Amino acid sequence: MRISMLAERTGLPVATLKYYLREGLVPPGIATARTQALYDEAHVARVLLVRALTESASLSLAAVRQVLAVLDDPPASRHDLLGAAQHALLTDEERSAGTPGAPAADPWLSRAAAVVAARGWYCDTDDPLVRRLAEGLRAADAADVTISDEHLDAYARASETIADADVASVPADAAGAMRQVVVGTLLTDPLILTLRRIAQQQASDTAAARPTS
Amino acid sequence: MRISMLAERTGLPVATLKYYLREGLVPPGIATARTQALYDEAHVARVLLVRALTESASLSLAAVRQVLAVLDDPPASRHDLLGAAQHALLTDEERSAGTPGAPAADPWLSRAAAVVAARGWYCDTDDPLVRRLAEGLRAADAADVTISDEHLDAYARASETIADADVASVPADAAGAMRQVVVGTLLTDPLILTLRRIAQQQASDTAAARPTS
DNA sequence: ATTATTGGATAGTGATAGTCTCCAATGTCA
DNA sequence: TGACATTGGAGACTATCACTATCCAATAAT
Question: How many domains does chain A have?
């Protein structure tokens, strides 16, 4: 199919597709002449993937590029798969954060480590995710929002439920697994947050019905 | 305190504070002369809140404005509180989405409603949150990510755990409750997503240790 | 008295994500 | 075969966002 057909199939203007091609987010079509190239279903899927990641998962095109790079070249070992996937989802800043000498005993980092440890999980304060958690705790405190240990543990328990379901749904083949983990996680993040809000309404109604319990 | 002190306390350049004042995100100081105004701890807290919402919760300044408007003028009735809070967290587009005649029987909307109903929750396909859920499901499908009913139900169960903890932690006074619900939800969203990723690593390791179970 | 700081206004910046305009080469259909 | 639309490729242009910089005359500090 030609680019105008690709535009029709994806619902995007031709100019945007040209832009994605220029940016390397979508591979070039098969050139049949100097001003003609053919695109196939894989191109349609790729464009839809880019849109899903930008629109639904709110990724920047730079982040989409990172994700696509991992999908296009998945690590061979199944063991490295999740690690590579997680790595692909970090920001440049997070990736390059080496421990510069003394960590200055950040209280937020301590608490983040404690939350993780309380669930019986591993505990490495150098892990970018633990650092990200600490950063979130710091921001909440700066905004004068206090989160109790029980509250935080409830989040950790819920996360465990989610992660177990996630891991259980990973397909056997490497490429499919990569796709499911990386793209699946990104696209289900907003689902989880939306479900949380719906559940809040529900929990609030229930609490109102059974007032000062 | 003068603006330079406010800058020092918040760690932001004076130019940025002036910008926030201009944009109405931070209330003006008490003018003592035509070129002099005083700021207090409330201003410090406000600036830190704005930063927490933009940096940690990734809100745009326009969204921060919406949130602050609700915080500054909370609904009197406790019953309306969560509704108003939820309303404040919607986009303009979502707020203005009235049902235009026939809903065209969107399959994603049906599935979203089914997920909600399966948890024994209310079920209104006009609810902006249910629509948002449907939109997320549509995006996942477009990106060729399939989510089983069990998988989705695990998310719903986890969300219930989270929401119960959220509702249990809401303070009694109206202003504090508003703050906790709106700001607390926004700032804990990233915590939950980060915990999910950490839990995924954990679940993956566990699954690897107990291979083909 | 001199120097620094302030509030207020206006203009400029850099990043992001497109969108528009041209062009000569090609495809399509009469 | 010819008229006309479409294409790939390149470059310039645009809008939005979140600042940042510059000026100014009016204070404040020393």
Answer: 2
Any idea what the CATH number is for the domain that residue B19 is in?
1.10.1660.10
Q: Please check whether residue B34 lies inside any domain of the structure.
A: yes
Is residue A112 located within the same domain as residue A178?
Answer: yes
Give the model confidence (pLDDT) of B124-138 as tens digits. Answer: 899 999 999 999 999
Contact criterion met (CB below 8 Å) for A112 and A128: no
Give the pLDDT confidence score for residue B210 in this predicted structure: 58
Residues A28-41 have pLDDT tens digits of 999 999 889 999 99
Contact B162 A155 (CB under 8 A): yes
* ∠ Cα A165 A171 A175 (to 5°): 130
Q: How far is the alpha carbon of B30 from chain A, nearest alpha carbon, in Å?
A: 23
Is B60 buried (19+), middle (13-18) or exposed (0-12) by CB count in 10 A? exposed
pTM: 0.93
Residues A13 and A3 in one domain: yes
| Mean per-residue pLDDT, B10-23 | 97
Alpha-carbon gap: A179 to the closest alpha carbon of chain B (Å): 8
pLDDT, one tens digit per residue, over B158-182 is 999 999 999 999 888 877 888 898 9
Does residue B29 approach strand D to less than 7 Å at its CB? Answer: no
SS3 (DSSP) at B25: coil
A210 near B CB under 8 A:
no
Which residues on A lie below 8 Å from B198 (Cβ)?
116, 121, 127, 129-130, 133, 159
CB contact set of A115 (below 8 Å; sequence gap of 6+) = A133, A149, A152, A153, A156, B195
Task: Inform me whether the C-beta atom of residue A77 falls under 8 Å from chain B C-beta atoms.
Answer: no
Beta strands in chain A (DSSP E): 30-33, 36-38
B6 domain-assigned: yes
User: Does residue A197 share a domain with residue A98?
Assistant: yes
Domain that holds residue A71: 57-209
Confirm whether B25 is domain-assigned: yes
Which chain A residue has its CA at the smallest distance from B139's CA?
A52
Q: Give tens-digit pLDDT for A180-193.
A: 989 999 999 999 99
Instruction: Provide the shortest C-alpha distance from residue A38 to chain B (in Å).
Output: 22
Q: In this predicted structure, what is the pLDDT of residue B213?
A: 40
Let me know whether A98 and A188 are in one domain.
yes
Chain B residue with minimum CA distance to A183: B145
- State the pLDDT confidence band at A103, using cuts at 50, 70 and 90: low
